[in-house]
Design brief:
alpha+beta, Rossmann fold, Uridine Diphospho-n-acetylenolpyruvylglucosamine Reductase, domain 3, 14 helices, 39% helix
Length: 472
């Protein structure tokens, strides 16, 4: 079967392209990318494609890099294909391989967005698929790694995945098309090059000469397995989810423990993606770190890539971004000398109101962030602060004082959250452990004449400027 026909058939089967697609094609000048461009150039009239070529000159090989650029320019000019070229210089103190990859896909994505291209085509072939599977297997990527390169990954499409290097070279040779060879591909300075140049030839010679084909088939099987496990874990995720927002996701620990480890891996990876925007940096090693704190006693914490923090607290496993887990200044406080109807402290909006009549009973505990107390049993100034060593108070319903630390333990307040709790105090005592319990001595009775209502509300960063104006 002709390579063009094979690629077209593969793309149709996997719904890689459709009529009138606008396709950005990454072209280095090598055999794979030239074959890819040539195939799409000939398919363009049939499918009414819009094609834009992107080339990056990394300036790593001097005149050879410039030669690649001129070669791609000439190829596109002769066929009237639109071309955009980017010249970059890599940081000598960084990993060239990863740095080049990040630059490449950042450039492709920005270019696709600017020109309204809905697909980005790259020339990975069957051998690249095998190389990627081996590379990811050794990095502990699990099923995600073993599925290899997907035909479609977001905007990225891989039309040549079922084509061998021999088929690609044969296609170019038959059509008298030349290409550029990158001599650095033969150097073994990088892990991928070592796999490509040393490990894979050894496997072919000593284990299975047809292993690339076997791995290609295996990738399809694992991709299907990965999809099935994703579907199952998504259904389980909905049942164990307790709370979530853009920066925070809380899962039921007891329900998590009922699942098989493989499903937990998929759920943790999903949560990581929700908070970080990508699952690419979540590996089996990260999964094992989370598993270790699940099995440990007490509250524990682990840091994942992209500043994602995982906290194990009682019957909850909490994932949060770094910005939502900022350190609290325990010495920070605010003195309120007289009644203030509305003001802010840290990330909270606080309101106060005085009543002369006792509110109806159903209003006394309208929510955990609102409290009513006997104003005559306290006095201004009120002080809002965080916990300090030795803090004690008499919780509502009790007769004797209790250490605040012991109260938090009894209430199962995570040690990671205790510093964040606001304390409303007068000069003698803690009046209210905000969100948890009122001091027994300031509780409303039938003899109460003046009632102070205090309400706190967490505010987002978007409303902080407005809150600052309120303070002023």
């Amino acid at each position: 079967m002709d390579l063009k026909t094979k690629v077209e058939k593969y793309c149709i089967e996997n719904k890689i392209f459709s009529q009138r697609d606008k396709i950005l094609i990454g072209v280095s000048g090598g055999a794979d990318s030239i074959a890819l461009l040539n195939v799409f150039y000939h398919l363009r009239p049939k499918y009414n494609f819009t094609i834009l070529v992107a080339h990056i000159n990394y300036n790593l090989r001097g005149e050879e890099s410039d030669g690649d650029e001129l070669f791609v320019k000439k190829y596109c000019f002769e066929r009237n294909i639109a071309l955009v070229i980017k010249n970059v210089k890599l940081n000598a103190n960084s990993d060239f391989e990863n740095q080049a990859r990040e630059i490449r896909f950042s450039f492709f994505n920005k270019l696709a967005e600017s020109y309204g291209m809905n697909k980005i085509a790259v020339g990975h072939n069957k051998k690249d698929q095998a190389e990627t599977m081996i590379f990811k297997l050794f990095r502990g990527s699990g099923y995600t790694g073993l599925r290899g390169i997907l035909p479609i990954d977001g905007k990225i499409i891989h039309p040549l995945l079922k084509c061998s290097r021999e088929e690609i070279v044969g296609y170019l040779t038959k059509r008298n098309l030349s290409w550029r060879e990158d001599r650095t591909n033969k150097e073994n300075n990088y892990t991928r090059n070592k796999i490509r140049n040393q490990l894979m030839p050894w496997i072919a010679e000593n284990i299975n000469s047809n292993f690339i084909e076997k791995l290609s088939i295996g990738a399809e099987i694992f991709a299907e397995t990965d999809e099935i496990l994703n579907d199952i874990s998504n259904k389980k995720y909905k049942k164990i989810l307790l709370k979530s927002n853009d920066d925070y996701i809380e899962l039921s620990l007891s329900k998590l423990k009922l699942l098989k480890p493989t499903l937990r891996f998929y759920i943790f990876r999903k949560v990581f993606k929700e908070l970080s925007g990508s699952e690419k940096d979540f590996y089996h090693q990260n999964f094992e770190e989370i598993e270790s704190i699940i099995e440990s006693d007490g509250s524990k914490m682990v840091m994942l890539p992209k500043k994602i923090i995982v906290l194990k607290e009682y019957d909850a496993l909490k994932f949060c971004t770094g910005k939502s887990f900022k350190k609290v200044d325990l010495n920070n406080s605010k003195k309120i000398s007289s009644l203030r109807h509305l003001f802010t402290f840290e990330d909270y909006r606080i309101s106060m109101k005085i009543y002369k009549k006792l509110p109806k009973k159903r209003y006394l505990f309208e929510d955990k962030n609102t409290i009513y107390l006997d104003l005559d049993k306290t006095s201004f100034p009120l002080i809002i602060r965080h916990r300090q060593p030795g803090d004690r108070f008499i919780p509502l319903g009790m007769k004797h004082s209790k250490k605040l630390k012991d109260f938090f333990i009894d209430e199962k307040v995570s040690k990671f959250e205790r510093d964040k709790v606001l304390l409303f105090c007068d000069n003698e005592k803690i009046l209210w452990v905000a969100g948890y319990r009122l001091h027994n001595d300031v509780a409303i009775t039938s003899k109460t004449n003046k009632i102070l209502r205090i309400k706190i509300e967490k505010i987002s960063h978007k409303t902080m400027r407005h809150a600052e104006r309120i303070n002023k």
